[in-house]
Design goal:
The chain is an all-alpha fold. The strands form 2 sheets. The protein has a two-stranded antiparallel sheet. It has a two-stranded antiparallel ribbon with strand order 3-4. Helix 5 packs across helix 6 and helix 9 packs antiparallel against helix 10. The radius of gyration is 35 Å and the shape is globular. The N terminus and C terminus are likely disordered.
């Protein structure tokens, strides 16, 4: 199918359809009782902004009244709500500071605080916070006045004045100052998934559990009263204690009409001395307990045995003659079943059963322990992690709560300090996406290392970590996301960097280390964009020109690739030309590299579209169709041609050396994952198609790893065929062509290249062959 550059075609328009669908899903969640009110609010703001023109989806500056460096509230898909994160309502620490400064009645509280921190007293306070490392930055804007204070203290008054002028138009709204009552995280090689502050806030949201509270109340309050009522009635039995019969299997025995078989005497035949007085005392205790213990509702359920016996006891005390024979029979049956289950209330059997119940509820509940642990965590640096969770979970002398502690351990592990590999071994980091959340902690320190001043290094590292929490925007026309250097206060200190070969070498080593960890731990997963952002930052710090390429969204692809994709194709071509990878995906890298110039060799403005043209031809699609499925097929061909950063990383000798002799293991891991992933229970067709895409991407990574050591292909194919033979017959038959195609590409390449009817395993083409038969799709 012919393909043409898209320069003369109208661009796609981003409408409100996606946002409206997300709003409906949020409303449905609210209707189900889920806590989704904030999601509803955000999506309503997105739609209102798009309809009014206040926000422009797809723009680098989607909210016209804010410059592009302002951190915006962004929802799924990269849509801006129109709000700035640093313009949120006053935080508790701001209110406390306003009170301390006597500014509680200020007409514009945030402007008053920004002005205070520009006063001599405020600047001195900020410089003291810098030197003592006692500040916390949650949003990048909160470091702006710290930079102003540092610049002023270092004699850079003019730079500080220009920066203040840039910030001034937004000082009424935005929080340009940090929180000053918390300490900055210590710097070392360890990382944590969440900070102490984030976990403490999450613990603060754990409320009482109504079911657990009801269970505790039932065992501690009502069960002893229930036993007392049963004991009172058993005192009135004349003859043997009534007991309901059970068979050898422990099931109730029934008579011909289905009734319980009860043996023993009848209640209310006698009244020992003092019985009525003791009965009144128990009834009085029950009435008092009802006033303050209404969680479990045992007395309010009509068919509850306890409720029946209490009403009968009241009648037996006040007017026993009104009890009918039928009612006495029901009392006898209730007593008989109780005795059959537990024995007499005073027996050892009953006591052991009640002791077991009390042990089950012993100790603190999740809510109680969460309150206690979050209080201990509030005394620690909020921006740091925990070296040992026992410090807050099991301090010396504290009461143990085994059941709650097990749950709390899982929560606290999220802020545990450890190396990335250590967190992966512990199961705390379970995907490359989660791994990407860890790296800003290390990258921030490495990027900051080239500043000579220690306070500035700490400030930059904190700003970097806060900036990396910024959510990416939906962008069109090959626009680039805002970079940390685009923040005016960061731009003001960038010239203060010193050329430091040791820092560059550390960044190179970290890049190689993190790339190795990501590949060896999650070989089946493409490197996610958030992880690639950190790799790019490390490459800049290491002075390496590495064209890392992000995964592109099919629904907003504009029919062209940015220049770095061209360089990535050339790197892949030099590494993979003539390899199993090139044969399997039928890539003639010689032809591709002739048609796709390197970015530095472009001679005309439309040369960057050459890669898009090649990809469209390979996908048999036309450029400019603006259909997600068509775009997806074109983008997948780009992923194949560039290998999505794998060739770029394996071209680095340090990375490739770490995987010498290990690529077979990586390929086998990918293959195992693909087989498992394609057989997961599937609820709907969208989920199934996404799983097919993920499996195809994992398959591509597998082929790449096999191509790094051609001598391992035979061993791999033997094991792969054996494993496939162990799968369910229907799945094995459906999947076998994929393995057969790989085997043909490796052992009979001419036959494979000539057999155009057999496609490689792709995620966007010929997906029907990989789908389950309709009757096999599982909910």
């Amino acid at each position: 199918m012919a393909s043409t550059p898209p320069s003369d075609l109208p661009p796609p328009v981003i409408g409100t359809g996606y946002a409206a669908n997300q709003l409906q899903r949020a409303l449905d969640a609210v209707a189900r009782g889920e806590p989704a009110a904030e999601r509803v609010r955000r999506w309503r703001d997105v739609i209102a902004g798009m309809l009014s023109g206040d926000t422009e989806a797809g723009s680098r500056q989607p909210v016209a009244r804010y410059p592009d460096w302002v951190t915006l509230e962004v929802v799924t898909g990269g849509f801006a709500t129109g709000k700035a994160v640093a313009a949120s309502p006053l935080r508790p620490h701001e209110i406390t500071l306003l009170q301390e400064l006597g500014l509680s009645d200020a007409e514009s509280p945030r402007l008053a605080l920004n002005r205070y921190f520009l006063s001599d007293a405020g600047l001195a306070r900020l410089n003291e916070a810098l030197s003592s490392r006692r500040f916390a930055i949650e949003v990048a804007e909160e470091s702006a006045l710290l930079v102003v204070a540092w610049l002023g203290a270092q004699g850079h008054g003019q730079i500080a004045a220009r920066l203040v002028a840039d910030l001034a138009p937004f000082a009424r709204e935005l929080r340009f100052y940090p929180r000053l009552d918390l300490s900055v995280a210590a710097s070392d090689d360890r990382v944590h998934l969440d900070t102490i502050g984030e976990v403490a806030r999450a613990l603060g949201r754990i409320g009482p559990n109504a079911q657990i509270d009801a269970q505790r109340e039932a065992i501690e309050v009502w069960t002893p009263l229930y036993d007392a009522v049963v004991g009172l009635f058993l005192e009135t039995v004349e003859g043997p204690t009534p007991i309901a019969a059970k068979d050898a299997d422990g099931q109730w025995q029934r008579g011909e009409r289905g009734q319980f078989i009860v043996q023993g005497g009848w209640p209310l035949k006698q009244r020992p001395e003092g019985w009525t007085t003791r009965a009144r005392e128990v009834l009085s205790s029950i009435r008092e307990s009802r006033k303050s213990h209404g969680r479990c509702g045992k007395l309010d359920r009509v068919n509850e045995t306890f409720s029946l016996l209490v009403k009968a006891l009241e009648q037996a005390v006040d007017d026993p003659d009104r009890l009918t024979g039928r009612e006495v029979g029901r009392i006898r049956l209730a007593l008989a079943r109780y005795v059959a289950k537990r024995g007499h209330p005073a027996s050892a059997t009953a006591s052991e059963a009640r002791d077991r119940q009390r042990r089950q509820i012993a100790g603190k509940t999740n809510h109680e322990l969460a309150v206690e642990v979050s209080r201990r965590m509030s005394e620690l640096p909020a921006d740091d992690g925990l070296d040992d969770i026992d410090v807050v979970l099991r301090p010396s002398g504290s009461e143990r709560a085994p059941r709650a502690e097990a749950c709390m351990e899982r929560r606290l592990n999220r802020c545990l300090n450890d190396t990335p590999r250590g967190l992966i071994r512990r199961g705390i980091v379970s995907s490359s996406e989660v791994l990407a959340r860890l790296l800003p902690q290390r990258t921030s320190q490495l990027r900051a290392a080239s500043f000579a001043d220690g306070a500035l290094r700490t400030l930059y590292a904190s700003t970097y970590r806060a900036f990396r929490r910024r959510r990416s925007l939906l962008l069109l026309n090959l626009q680039k996301q805002v970079q940390i250097e685009d923040l005016p206060w960061v731009a003001a200190i960038e010239p203060m960097r010193a050329v430091d070969e040791a820092a560059a070498q550390a960044a190179r080593a970290a890049l190689d280390e993190f790339a190795t960890i990501a590949i060896e731990s999650f070989p089946q997963t493409m490197l996610p964009n958030k992880l690639l952002q950190e790799f790019m930052a490390l490459a800049r710090e290491a002075d390496l020109k590495l064209p890392f390429t992000e995964e592109l969204a099919a629904d907003i692809f504009m029919g062209a690739f940015s220049p770095k994709f061209l360089d990535a194709v050339h790197i892949a071509g030099h590494l993979l030309s003539g390899s199993l990878y090139a044969r399997y995906y039928r890539v003639d890298y010689g032809d591709v590299l002739r048609r796709v110039p390197q970015a530095s060799a472009r001679r005309e403005s439309r040369a960057q579209d050459a890669l898009a043209v090649v990809c469209a031809e390979r996908a048999a699609e036309s450029l400019g169709a603006w259909r997600p499925a068509s775009n997806g097929r074109i983008i997948e061909e780009q992923l194949i041609l560039t290998s999505h950063n794998l060739a770029l990383l394996f071209e680095r000798g340090e990375v490739r050396e770490r995987f010498n002799g290990r690529t077979l293991e990586l390929a086998q891991s990918c293959y195992d994952w693909v087989l498992d992933h394609l057989q997961l229970p599937t609820a709907d067709w969208r989920t199934e198609l996404q799983r097919i895409k993920n499996a195809a991407y994992a398959w591509r990574q597998m082929v790449f790893f096999l191509s790094m050591d051609a001598s391992q292909l035979s061993a791999f194919l033997i094991g792969a065929n054996e494993l496939l033979a162990q799968q369910p017959q229907a799945f094995a038959a459906r999947f076998r062509p994929a393995l057969r195609g790989l085997q043909m590409a490796g052992e009979s390449p001419e036959q494979w290249l000539a057999n155009k009817g057999e496609l490689p395993f792709l995620g966007w083409r010929d997906t029907q062959r990989w789908r389950r038969p309709s009757g096999a799709v599982q909910a």
